[in-house]
Each structure stands twice: as C-alpha cells, then as structure tokens.
Amino acid sequence: MDHDGSTPEILHYMLSNITADNSGDSLCDYLPPIPAKGSGYHRLVCTVYHHSEELDISSLRIDGSSLSNRQFSSAHFLKENEEVLTPAAFRFSQGEKF
Question: How far apart are CA 10 and CA 17, in angstroms?
Fold first, then answer.
C-alpha cells in the first residue's frame, strides 16, 4: 500500500487465506511502488493480518494496473472484517523519486 497522506491509498498487492498448505488467494497482480518524479515522499506500508476463518475476497478482485482501480481503504477493509481479522504486523518505509 502506498499512501502519501494527500491521495487515496493505492493497493500494490494483496494475498489472503495463506496456510501451510496454500500460497493464498491473490486480490490483484503485484504493482511495484514507483513514485512519479517530483511527487515528493510516499509512505509504503505492509500490513499482515491474522484471520480466524477464510475470507471471500472475490468481490474485491482488481483487474489491471490502473491506479484508479487500485484505490483501497485499509481502515474500511479492517472495519468490514473486524470479526475475523487481527492486525499482526506492520512495516513502514518512505521513498521519494527525484
């Protein structure tokens, strides 16, 4: 997820339902976080959630790499699934392209 504070969150990749026997269900193809030249700093966040039951993400599936298709709200996703999701790990970084 790429979020600079002034634009919507952009979803770069999402997997769900990962188990020891299953590599998970992909919501979208990986989109590398490449900030536009001169667009300032971008905050990159990787979030890992533990879920107590399998999630059906078929209605959220994203086709293509258009940024407008990749707008996402992690807060909304967590709120919609709060009965089964528990945030387990976060990783923050910041990048800028000159």
Answer: 21
| Rounded Cα–Cα distance for residues 11 and 47 (Å) | 11
**What's the whole-model pTM score?**
0.77
Whole-number percent of the chain with pLDDT over 70: 92
> Cα(40)–Cα(5) distance, rounded to whole angstroms?
11
* Selection from 23, 9, 3 nearest residue 69 by Cα: 9
DSSP for 16-52, written as a single string: E--BTTB--EEEE------PPTT--EEEEEEEEEEES
